[in-house]
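Human: Can I borrow your eye for a moment on a structure tokenisation matter? Separate attempts, laid side by side, tell us more than any discussion would. Could you pick a protein and write out its sequence and tokenised fold? No explanation is needed for now; the record alone will do.

Assistant:
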Amino acid sequence: MGKARLLVVEDDNDISNMLDIFFKSQGYDVDIAPRGEVALEKTRKVMPHLIVLDIMLPDIDGYEVCQRLRTNSRTSHIPVIFLTQKDERSDKLQGLELGADDYITKPFDIEELRLRVQNAIKRAERESLTDAQSGLPSGKLIEDQIRRIIREKDWSFLDIRLNNFEPFKDVYGFIAANDVLRFTGMLFGEILDDFNNENDFIGHAGGDNFVIISSTDADEAILKTLKERFKNEILTHYNFMDRQQGYITATNENGKAINYPLMTLSIGKVSPKTHTFADIREITELAAEARRLDNA
């Protein structure tokens, strides 16, 4: 995987600076939030792989931050490690009851915290909870969301594919490709927020395949905006020459040079308004078929 992203929520500058320096030296991308509301905003914009969360914060406490993360379908999968001076059993239980993955008290051993962070991220990936590249919910969590909506009446499921992602990866390399995956997840989040769909679920099924599960019937304006903004903003991931000519040249499996268009989105949408579903496989199969037709 690329660099794992940590969000450290801590209002003590000495501690946050120390954690920033230490975890960057360990190969992590680190972001700092001095307040709870700032942490929630940063989490919506750049999905971290794990959050180190202090309980005592100047605005809302860590318990409320954790609770709001866990009750939002877009952030409920992110591992949280509480970091606090409190050492009472009741405080630890409260944190764990809210869904924290671990708990460490100050003063702490930095190597112990490193191992807890490392293990929590690996556990989330091993249990198919989080995609290693994008940090978005994956396998099991996507399935859980589909099982939830099949019993409801008003929703839509979007199967989204990044067209020509593999040729881009072949030409630009896996680091640039991972940047595209992270960018895509962030862009989808921004667009849904703009449409006041902050609680809609965004998942990464793997590779070039994403899903969005909306609590309402996603209208054509959302689909159009997803396609248009991706088409325009993905250009920054190409060099000047490729942007100008509108394609990249890659070698196929037979060793032949092929010109591939720049990346775009194909989207397949299904909802209870258009289909009746007997099981969750029908949802994903029909959405995939709709997406293939969108790319035809």
User: Anything to note?
Assistant: The two ends are 32 Å apart (CA to CA). The mean pLDDT is 91.
